Amino acid sequence: LGLYFTPFGRVLDLIDDCIACAVDKLIADFGGFVWDEAGFEKLRDFVRENLNEVTVDIAQKVEQILTLTYQLNQRLKGKMDFTMAFALSDIKSQLAGLVYQGFVQKSGYDRLPDLQRYLQAVDKRIDKLAQDVNRDRAAMLRIEQVQQAYQQLLAKLPKSKPISDEIISRSLSKAYGLAGLRIGYAVSNPEIADLLNRVRQPFNCNSLALTAAVAVMNDDKFVEKVAENNRIEMRRYEDFCQKNQLDYIPSKGNFITIDFKQPAAPIYDALLREGVIVRPIAGYGMPNHLRISIGLPEENDKFFTALSKVLKFA
């Protein structure tokens, strides 16, 4: 491989390019990207198991491509008939666009056979060029006319920005204090919003929730007040946990998760009997934890008193 690839880069670069192409193919064969730890481990094992075999397969295809490229470049060397100058210059541009440093991954596994076919076509073009230069020039002219027509048509299209596929969603249940109304909003491109509207349930938000949402979003002072209360009361929860040697998960939201180092279900039941409702999260694989919402000072006082009683804190 190195003999033919020398004009384009180091042999190690070519090997890395083949490996990267193999990884892309294996990810596609696996079913695409994964977004969780378990899926990543399975994908990693799949790639490790098959990487050598696929890389060798790619390297063999690349060797054929580079061999053809080398042979074509050899044919283009030497004295040049002036009548062929434009055609040979066009051929060199074609080769530069097909085989270059990094071409393996950028072309992709499925397109490597196409590259070989294109190079074979270039070889035949050179053969026919010597027989009839005018025919080749006429073909180049037709291609140029098609390209110009395409550019003219492209210029007539309205100028527009590419459509973003991102959706930003926001809940109004935290700082805005509307958890019970189950209301929020999303920001997206209008085309995406139209698609969402087609699948959403009719009347999914009631008029009371919508009215409240508009009111709180226009009330900056209310939001600042809620956020300040959350900061102060969150600190109280952290101090309470540290004082009583309870581990907790640091939070920037309006809730805190406490690790009781024992099954939390009995603690949850005992708090219920004290009139305090918290959230068990055993369903998320955290049977020793409870999630507590940060409330008003008097609500938090009641929680501290109830939990101290349940756990018999002094």
Automatic annotation (TrEMBL):
Keywords: Aminotransferase, ATP-binding, Helicase, Hydrolase, Nucleotide-binding, Pyridoxal phosphate, Transferase
Gene Ontology molecular function terms on file: helicase activity; pyridoxal phosphate binding; transaminase activity
Its EC number(s): 2.6.1.9
Signal peptide: none
Domain RNA helicase HrpA C-terminal: 2-164
PANTHER family xref list: HISTIDINOL-PHOSPHATE AMINOTRANSFERASE, HISTIDINOL-PHOSPHATE AMINOTRANSFERASE 2
GTP-binding in keyword set: no
Name recorded for this polypeptide: HrpA-like ATP-dependent helicase
Pfam families the UniProt entry points to: DUF3418
Keyword Transferase tagged: yes
InterPro entries documented for this protein: HistidinolP_aminotransfase, HrpA_C, NHTrfase_class1_PyrdxlP-BS, PyrdxlP-dep_Trfase, PyrdxlP-dep_Trfase_major, PyrdxlP-dep_Trfase_small
Coiled-coil annotated spans: none
